[in-house]
Design brief:
Number of strands of chain A: 19
Distance between the termini of chain B: 22 Å
Structural class of chain B: mainly alpha
Helix content of chain B: over 70%
Shape of chain A: elongated
Distance between the termini of chain A: 10 Å
Strand order of the largest sheet of chain A: 5-6-7-3-8-9
Strand content of chain A: 25-35%
Strand content of chain B: under 5%
CATH topology of the largest domain in chain A: Rossmann fold
Largest interface: A-B, 35 and 28 residues
Largest sheet of chain B: none
Order of helices and strands of chain A: EHEEHEEHHHEHEHEEHEEEEEEEEEE
Largest sheet of chain A: 6 strands, mixed
CATH class of the largest domain in chain A: Alpha Beta
Oligomer: heterodimer
Radius of gyration of chain B: 19 Å
Number of strands of chain B: 0
Number of domains of chain A: 2
Number of helices of chain A: 8
Order of helices and strands of chain B: HHHHHHHHHHH
CATH architecture of the largest domain in chain A: 3-Layer(aba) Sandwich
Radius of gyration of chain A: 29 Å
Amino acid sequence: MSEAPEPPRLSVEELTKLYRRATPGDQFRTLKSALLEGTLTRGLAPKNAITALDGVSFSVGAGEAFGVIGGNGSGKSTLLKVVAGILKPSSGRVEARGRVAALIELGAGFHPEISGRENVYINGAVLGLSRKEIDRRFDDIVEFSGLGDFIDEPVKNYSSGMYVRLGFAVAVHTEPDVLLVDEVLAVGDEAFAHRCLRRIEELLAAGRTLLFVSHALDLVEDLCDRVLWLDGGRARLLGSPRRVVDAYRQAVAEDEGREHQEAKSRSDARAESRSAGPQELETDEEGEPLRWGSRRAEIASARLLVGKPAAERYHFECGDPVAFEIEVAADEPLDDFVFGVAVNTPRGVECWGTNTDLAGLEARRLTGRARVRLVCPRFRLAPGEYLADVAVHSRDGTPYDYRRKVFAFSVTARERGVGLYFPEHRWETEGGVEWETVDESGP
Amino acid sequence: MVDTAARIFRFRGLLATLTARELKARYRGSLLGFFWSLVNPLLLLGVYGVVFGLILDPARGGGVDPYFVFLVTGLFPWIWFSSSLLEGASSLLANAGLIRKAVFPAELLPAVSVAANLVHLLLALPIAVGAVLVGRYLGHPVAGWGALALPGVILIELPLVAGLALGLAALTAHFKDVRDILTNFLTLLFFATPIIYPLDAVPEGWIRTLVRANPLTSYTLAYQESLFYGRVPEASLWLQMALVSLVGWAAGAWLFGRLRETVVEAV
């Protein structure tokens, strides 16, 4: 959305938050600094402090939904707590105009022993409502929460969904100017999540401000006008939801790719040491063998090569050129051999498989060391995680060396869709159909 | 110090709700309910009364008669003081979920402990009044209109109790050792205050000076004056109480104000 002309509802400037690392020797020093300066962390050596937020700045206008994404421990929740005023910033400034309601954890502030009704009053009072104001909204709150008669039960008897429903109902009915929501929508059922979203949309339409922290990237993309990506307490990217969420997904997939690579080099090293010692059967988690065959030809290694120029990588973008490379060695010359590659999902769904025999390649001679590459100029797998099997066997199927799950890789895509395969495509229509083109790439 | 008081006042409605919740939650699911709040003081009263009034030579009890009645007038306010401090000190830790996950005025939590125990005191007071009246009926020179000063004494002690509860709560949130130190300190303080013995019974000299210098002594004397002897406490006693209360509130509220921002991270 465009920047509002009025001053922002919420502005965060150079926000830094340090946590004290729990070291017993520091206790009295921290007490001293807490008494003298009102902070636990000033005067702490950097090694004794954990930086949860590091110079984060942004501002959110009226009617704007602002999303915050990032991995676990990236500082999202700390940010929300500082904005809510629960935690004090170590340095920097947070300014919120109007009533701030925070929904940080389900049912935070509910007392388990007393009834939902009484808890609504307490919760409302904590959020700054007078008894009369709560009286006026009480029926709406109960109706919204869908608790019905349960409202008079002690809260300890509530399910986690009921907790969050009541908590959310109270928070949105305080008509906050700034609503902070931390990942709680995931707890309620589908119907309630929809009701929450409708209510949030209403608040936004009424010019309220939303700060939304979530791992549900699709939801963030749909709901938010701008998104901040936090990484290790720093603002890594701030911009349109599409761009930031994509960049985040990309980075996550790259990390996964690196993990796949590391896992692969570890298993390669294991295989190396094993081939030196007595042969033992390698198995996967389900106890299925990972490798078998007579080893008349042996697969020394298998790699995934991505891009142009090709480099060994275990993450790529849907449509990138990739090659499956098999390095093979045969002590004695062979004249009957077939190389094969198969790609499966981690749950075992076969996505694609082929071999040299199916491709019409007639084996003539394999001797010494050799490299075989299956090259795919545009590999259009759907986004996700995959596992590769490679094999060399005789034409009648007798395995020389069959290696399952030899490596894993992840795929990301800019376009959206479901399934396993993203063919190149476009929509064409004729006649009485009109489209409005939405620029999805954003500002 | 003033703003802590202002905040508590601003949230007085919430304070009342939370205190009611505290009392309700405490007795929900127990058969005798509210009567438990009387069992504890009465039990203490019985024990001290039997030990010091019957087993040990009653004549050495400083000549206060009836001893049970005397004991009641000092013991009930003491229980308010010590329970408020003990519960107040743990209140932030006990409600960590509330202050860590919601924007919550943390100063209310120790205040709730003080208020809930004040309710207990007020519920127990009729017993004390009844005891004094029985004493008078038996011909002892006790009771009088001075008892009407009692609310004033309670009111003037309130800032002290609240201030100490606040300060101790903030300290305990940072250092759990405070709770154990407090328990032991309160035991010491109890015997250093003329509750189970009259001040006159303390040998003259440094030891009486010490007991008299105990800040809590002035309140205990005031309770005994008004409730037991039925006299309005002297002006000097009021002045002492006012001074101690002011200092106690100021110290506790200052400590709390200093530590309140870091409490959330500490609990």
